[in-house]
Amino acid sequence: MSDTQKEQPSVAEPSVEAPKSPSSSVLLTEDGELSDKLYEVLQVVFNKYAKFPDSAPAGIDDALARAKTGSLGRQEMNAFARATNGQDLPDEQWEELTTYLDVNDDTELTFKGFTALYSLQTENDEAETKQDLEHWGHDPKTLELVAKPEGVEKAAEPSTS
Questions:
Q1: What is the rounded CA–CA span in Å between residue 121 and residue 128?
Q2: Helix (H, G, I), strand (E, B) or coil at 74
Q3: Where are the beta strands (DSSP E) in the chain?
Q4: In terms of Cα–Cα distance, which of 99, 143, 114 is closest to 49?
Q5: Rounded distance, CA 86 to CA 24, Å?
Q6: Which end of the chain has less Cβ packing within 10 Å, N or C?
């Protein structure tokens, strides 16, 4: 080494923050739980595809209260899967869901089971959850609704006459 190389002061590298870990993303809390924003998106999505008992109070305005009364049977889950992934849910996956996640007495996935599904998926493959969010019309970075969800028909508007 020459004397000029030795005399040059060392320049400290700028500190670069490590990227946020998945546990502190917009999808999960630092404790690994679903974030409030993701939970709200899941309520809306679940309510869109779920069926509700005739005994459920009509016109429940609270999305969470409504979600807690609904369920996804095989037909509803297939509609959800087609809108999200483009195809029906395979039989073996349906069997796994209804064996390991929360279901009602009719072996239909409850909102609790649906959120558990997304909790597991997000913990293990956050990219898959982000892809689902995009299919539902949400920005996966902010969870804001930014576009009409893919493959979703506009709901019929109530008649004003």
A1: 7
A2: helix
A3: 71-72, 109-110
A4: 114
A5: 30
A6: C
Structural domains of the chain, with CATH = 34-53+61-147 (1.10.238.10)
pTM (2 d.p.): 0.76
> Looking up tokens 């064996």, which residue turns up?
99
Q: Are 71 and 106 in contact (CB under 8 A)?
A: yes
Tokens (6 digits) for 54: 């005739």
Contact 25, 31 (CB under 8 A): no
Return the amino acid letter for 26: V
The answer to whether residues 133 and 42 touch, using CB atoms and an 8 Å cutoff, is no
Confirm if 50 and 112 have CB atoms less than 8 A apart: no
